[in-house]
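Recap from last week: sequence in, structure out.
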Amino acid sequence: MPVQIHPSWKKKLQNEFEQDYFKQLIQFVKKEYSANTCYPKGNDVFAAFDHCPFDETKVVLIGQDPYHGPEQANGLCFSVKDGISHPPSLINIFKEITTDLGVPYPKSGNLERWADQGVLLLNATLTVRAHEAGSHQGKGWEKFTDAVIKTLSHEKEQLVFLLWGGFAKKKTKLIDANKHHILTSGHPSPLSANRGYWFGNKHFSKTNTILSSLGNKTIDW
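Predicted structure tokens:
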């Protein structure tokens, strides 16, 4: 699996690609993909970056792990391929959007439409073995994606970071809160959402309000 990534990101992250940990990570991933069924497909591993170039990034949404069921993961956090049933967290995301913005519940759970508008849909771990949640954690992906967050924080201004749940909130320490906008809430998973920590956060309208105040084009959620 070669490192194929949008040129704008390749330029910013070249230093990471040259480090030993990343080379070891890629060797691990190649071995896993050759010996086991893994997700997403090899050419989708860096899809979040390919759909959302560095210069066009306006919003950063941080997830944890790719979906590990058949034909679900497409390289974007919380997103599934067209025609795939919506997982519980995605259902709750769409429910909140419907309530927050008064728009219809979408048919497709494919969030490429968000990424193409400048929303970086970044999982902390970019690969996973089929049916084994968290199986590729602790192999180097987190170090890489933390570097992505730090680079965005350092080199850009006025980004909107959406941190949902305890895992994502820990990334706050990587972000310069004086330069960027950080919106936090509970996770959209049923466990958190059903206890009142997700619904009503209005993160979608709040994000658009921030973008509009900066003179940026809002996101069509």
